[in-house]
Design goal:
about 400 residues; alpha/beta; Rossmann fold; 2 domains; 5-stranded parallel beta sheet; globular; disordered N terminus
């Protein structure tokens, strides 16, 4: 029963998945090809922070497993069932390397899909490219995951952080051209990439407009002191480039300090369920961010055909999840896109063909993407989604405003 995955503890579910995967391991998968006699299984590897500072993102892994359960119940991919092997890396780069070696060398996965996080994906990138194992739809917007010349076996998924930063810069220049900006960013490729995009978008005015910038480490217990220094800088715009735990802390800290700048929250932590509710909806009013997915809790999508399929899936395979968590829509869209790639690959499930199909998506629209935003890739374009729309938090939901903005990056 697919629902068993969601009723057991996370640890038990992972052990069940791993044991099932090991029982199906065959030498035929060693070269990344599923043959007609390889038990008709497509073995997909995954890393998730089921524990640690980024554990709020672990819902992505649960939704992806549930989506593949649905696909298997519908007959699989060209008659082959998906075996999804998901391990906890605790958002720790060293642990990620250990776990990905297990996936490739012991479990003999065809590819690694939707590994979560910038530092962990960076840690496994060289290894997977050396082994010529697809690192497909890495769950990070760092630009390094869209560089087909340097890393031909790695492709990201979400909009690049630099594109997002430029979008925020454009918005700030249009609405507060004399702003004093304070930036708090995570000290990794996530933070540095988005900060670079912000500065690039501000152009020559970056030096005069940015009054303060500070980084934090994911090992820090709290960012409250950073936020206090942001306020003391005299800034009237606060750009928070933070992951969920620290995003919620930042929103709470700003409210406690009675500091009410134009608050820009990076979209990686724009989740109502994982960030805004824990921080307090009252404290979250007026925050702005950017989006590429539909908000599953927004009634405007009630009659949308794609979201009807999304909600029907959740009703059947993950009825207990909070639909206000945008990571739920993320996991669904990424899994749907991988299934599309596998279907297009047909009976040629070589790793090379998987990458060829992933790099041949033109205007593909998973159910959860906003109207006007599509997945488009090419041999020289490994950034599948490069469009965003601004949104503002009001009441208990995000409200979209303005046009869809193309932030395309050129390699």
């Amino acid at each position: 029963m697919p629902s068993i995955v969601f009723r057991r503890s996370r640890r038990d579910a992972l052990l069940t998945l791993s044991a099932a995967a090991l029982s199906l391991a065959t030498p035929a998968l060693a070269e990344g090809v599923v043959s007609e006699r390889a038990d008709r299984v497509i073995r997909i590897g995954n890393l998730m922070p089921y524990s640690g500072p980024a554990s709020a993102y672990s819902i992505v892994g649960r939704i992806e497993q549930a989506y593949f359960n649905m696909i298997n119940d519908q007959g699989g991919i060209n008659g082959r069932r998906i075996e999804f092997i998901s391990y906890d890396d605790a958002y720790n780069p060293a642990k990620a390397v250990e776990q990905v070696r297990k996936l490739v060398e012991r479990d003999q996965v065809l590819l690694v899909f939707s590994a979560m996080g910038t530092p962990t994906n960076a840690a496994i990138q060289k290894y997977l490219n050396l082994k010529q194992v697809p690192q497909l739809f890495a769950a990070s917007g760092a630009t390094r995951f869209g560089d087909p010349q340097a890393f031909p076996w790695t492709m990201g998924w979400q909009p690049p952080y630099q594109s997002e930063g430029r979008v925020y810069a454009k918005y700030i220049l249009a609405t507060k051209p004399t702003a004093r900006i304070a930036v708090l960013y995570q000290n990794d490729d996530l933070g540095r990439d988005l900060l670079k995009g912000l500065k690039d978008g501000l152009g020559d005015r970056a030096a005069s407009m940015i009054a303060a910038e500070e980084s934090y480490e994911v090992t820090e217990p709290s960012v409250d002191n950073h936020v206090a220094r942001m306020k003391s800088s005299g800034a009237d715009v606060f750009v928070s480039i933070t992951t969920p735990k620290f995003a919620a802390q930042s929103i709470k800290a700003a409210a406690a300090l009675d500091w009410h700048p134009l608050y820009v929250q990076a979209l990686v932590s724009a989740s109502i369920a994982a960030v805004l509710r824990p921080a307090g909806l009252d404290a979250s009013q007026g925050l702005v961010s950017a989006a590429y997915n539909k908000d599953a809790a927004d009634p405007q999508w009630r009659d949308d055909a794609g979201m009807k399929r999304f909600h029907a899936f959740l009703d059947a395979y993950a009825p207990d999840v909070d639909r206000g968590d945008n990571s739920v829509a993320y996991g669904y869209g990424a899994a749907q896109c991988l299934v599309e790639v596998l279907r297009r690959a047909g009976n040629d499930l070589s790793r090379a063909n998987i990458m060829k199909q992933a790099a041949s998506l033109q205007g593909y629209a998973p159910d959860t993407l906003l109207p006007g935003i599509t997945v488009t890739t090419a041999a020289d374009d490994f950034h599948p989604i490069e469009q965003l729309q601004m949104m503002r938090f009001s009441g208990d939901h995000w409200e979209l405003f303005g046009p869809v903005i193309d932030g395309e990056l050129r390699n």
